[in-house]
Amino acid sequence: MSKRQVAMVFDLNKCLGCQTCTIACKRLWTREEGMDYMWWATVNTQPGRGTPRDWEQSGGGFKDGVAQAGKLPTRQDFGDAWKFNHEEVFFEGKGQSAHLQVVGEQPEWGPNWDEDQGAGEYPNAYYFYLPRICNHCTHPACLEACPRKAIVKREEDGIVLIDEDRCRGYRFCMEACPYKKIYFNHVKKVSQKCIFCFPRVEQGVAPACARMCPGRVRFVGYKDDQNGPIWKLVEKYKVAIPLHPEFGTEPNVFYVPPVAPPRYDAEGNIDESKPRIPDEYLVSLFGPKVLDALAILKAEMAKTRAGGKSEMLDVLIAYQWKSMFGGLDRDPATIEWTKS
Amino acid sequence: MLVNFVRGAPVEWLLDPDAEPWRKVSLERVALVGTPVGLQPTPAIRAAWANKHIGAVSEVQVGAVHNGEVIAFRLDWQDGSENRELGDTTAFPDAAAVMIPVVAGAPLITMGAPNQPVNTWYWRGDSDTQGRQVLSEGIGTTRTVDQTLVRGHGIWKDGRWKVVIARPMKVTSAEKVVQLAPGEKTQFAVAVWEGSNSERGGVKAFSGSWRDLVLAPAADGGKV
Q1: DSSP secondary-structure letter at A106?
Q2: What pLDDT is stored for residue B224 in this prediction?
Q3: Residues of B in contact with A67 (CB under 8 A)
Q4: Inter-chain contact B44–A60, Cβ cutoff 8 Å?
Q5: Nearest CA among A330, A338, A335, A327 for reference residue A4
Q6: ipTM score for this prediction
Q7: Is A70 on the interface with B (CB under 8 A)?
Q8: CATH for B2-215?
Q9: For residue B216, what is the enclosing H or E element?
Q10: What is the pLDDT of residues A98-146, one digit of tens each?
Q11: Distance (Å, whole) CA B199 – CA B192
Q12: Which of the two ends of chain A, N or C, has the fewest CB atoms closer than 10 A to its terminal CB?
């Protein structure tokens, strides 16, 4: 057990699916050889098959504390890296005549293939966006699975990292991670994953995905910091809960569940008798505590509608952008970064 | 097993399983067994392999020669698939290794023990000529000490691998690796990983027990 733990809370009611987090991460960390198909930060539409495809049914993690067998996703499952005619469009003078398009074999799956499909029937269709990163679990299945002790959980902040010098590319960690957030670099022949932007965190800067989020979705901080947003949302108000807690790894990424607009009945009148997003679907993602979290959220919303004040909603609204980062609010532009 | 002396054979010959020095070497059959699932080092690996067969390759033909300076092991085995690729997340390469105890009496099945290191010379199909020298003192302790001293080469043809793994008998190393000399006796074991069966790490077939290794003197005739 690490001494302290950094964590994130994602407010699903604010996520627009704009993928700015995805691109912020991509530009910062996964542009090198063998990383072309990697997206350490992803945002998928739910209900949906996710990234990698059908990851929720891929095994791994723990059941009653016992390690479970898991599957290895393929590059295709992750969506692979499509090849585009960049040369033709940008460098061969055909910018006015050629469209940017996928060349070669046409893909049949991608990292966000079922975007905005969702579920339900008009006028009661529904969907929401689910951003995901490595959960930097308290009980990391990847770390326990590695026979080479190549994965460490840092004492000082609980960030889970793969030591690429010790990693031999066996991919037992990929099998064991029930969230399927580990990628294999086939050029460097090692496994790689989200590093919670640890070089930034060490300098007091929030991870890039959080700092770049235009929707103020991603709260960051230490779990035990009672002045920070994580402790308030997770411990004090109990409005943020982990994804698939039954996987047994104790994630350190938490979600404020989505409150959908009400349903319409056959006559087009608002029907509050049952929720638009079926409870059972949310329970399948977040466990039964999601219903408590939704009830807390709705009660606070009712309170403010009646003219009252809600510290919890004030935290979630994030009037002050910097308040989202639990003290990790230093401007990265003020730091001289070097690559060692 | 006797390691014949081949005077003047260049290392490039030793590294080519089809070259002259190997034509006179009679290979010995060594039966292989899968490593026991209960000995796999982590619960996740034990769970993943609980109902799967470990050790797809059940026998290997082994021989060895030396030229007075370099010792080369030859491993041949039946394999319907040539797995050299790491192109997909689910692809694993074929591999083979020779293990020699650094300290006499070091246990094989646990790959050594504390203060009883074993030295492994490792070849893998995706990095054919560049071998890897590994030390270990028990399960889960393997440590690569260099990627320069061990060289290899594998040829897959007609459903059969012919692989050579070679290293200078005496090496300069800061690590406590095996040092050999003509005329000496030691022991060895072999292991084979079948990529198409997702074998990697401790999931492999191995020779089960140490076998004697006798290095012929560096003299013509090469008889012990």
Answers
A1: P
A2: 44
A3: 42-44, 46-47
A4: yes
A5: A327
A6: 0.94
A7: yes
A8: 2.60.40.1190
A9: none
A10: 999 999 999 999 999 999 999 999 999 999 999 999 999 999 999 999 9
A11: 9
A12: C
